[in-house]
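Model it.
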Amino acid sequence: MKKPITAKQHSLIDYALVGALLTVPSLLKLNKTAKRIYAAEALVLLPYVALTKQPVAIKGLIPFKTHGKIDPFNIGQFAIQTFFKPFHRTKKALLFNIAFTAMAGLTVLLTDWKSSD
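Modeled.
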């Protein structure tokens, strides 16, 4: 089965997910600790996305296949943090973290890691 998400689409989704980490927690009025953690995660993920060899890279240094091998660890970390106090303190924080993890996970599962656009 050919996977429907290309390298370019994956990267655009990644940029959108980074943007969501930087904006949605504030819009949802999540607790200060959760907002800080999401902002820190976004600042780690942005260079990783921007430096991956793909059509919308700022500078392609990281092979796209390597990006694909790292992504599951990022998703696992988001899944695990669901159990930490700042993320299950309120229903909004819990739902955002679960939804974010699911979106990122689906993106990875549906990405054609052999595509180069």
